[in-house]
Design goal:
Elements (H helix, E strand, L loop, with lengths): L3 H11 L5 E8 L3 H9 L2 H12 L5 E6 L12 E7 L5 E9 L4 E7 L3 E10 L5 E9 L6 H22 L1
Antiparallel strand pairs: 1-7, 2-3, 3-4, 4-5, 5-6, 6-7
């Protein structure tokens, strides 16, 4: 599996002004459930909750063989989001670690960014979801970052509502 820290370090060293931001959400849902049903299923959940709101039409998630570019890549899962009204989006799932509850998604469309999620168990049986994003788009504004933080919070709230 790819090392998430090395991947993020490589991006930030090659693009020193790459925006990096973090957010965290505390939940009463157990860490294993958040990791398995939200983090590992993030793209599927995202497609079911956000895309319909944004009127992207019928959305389909397809798991591709190899690296999604015609070659084989060990340790990668590539998922493609397809819709009638938007261009295809390809995401690579890297560094999924079910023992440490960590996973990252690399989006390689018109810009490259990495989303890293880590779930930390709490003594009360709940957990904290830590979300980190490294973006190669150096023109991202603070308002856009705040909007992305709010989007993650909304997506996670929708997840919690499905669990309740």
């Amino acid at each position: 599996m790819a090392n998430i820290a090395d991947l993020i370090s490589e991006i930030t060293s090659s693009i020193p002004d790459a925006p990096v931001w973090e957010s965290q959400i505390t939940s009463s849902i157990p860490a294993s459930k958040v990791f398995n049903d939200f983090v590992l299923a993030y793209l599927d959940f995202f497609a079911k909750t956000v895309f319909p709101i944004e009127n992207f039409g019928v959305v389909e998630i397809v798991t591709l063989e190899g690296d999604g570019l015609g070659g084989e890549a060990n340790g990668f899962i590539v998922k493609e989001i397809r819709s009638e009204t938007m261009r295809e989006q390809r995401w690579s799932v890297v560094g999924a670690d079910s023992e440490n509850f960590t996973c990252a998604y690399v989006y390689g469309g018109n810009v490259l960014y990495v989303e890293e999620m880590k779930v930390i168990p709490l003594v009360d049986g709940g957990c904290t979801l830590k979300y980190k994003k490294v973006d190669t788009n150096t023109t991202v504004t603070e308002d856009e970052i705040e909007g992305q933080k709010a989007l993650i919070a909304r997506i996670f709230k929708a997840f919690e509502d499905t669990i309740a």
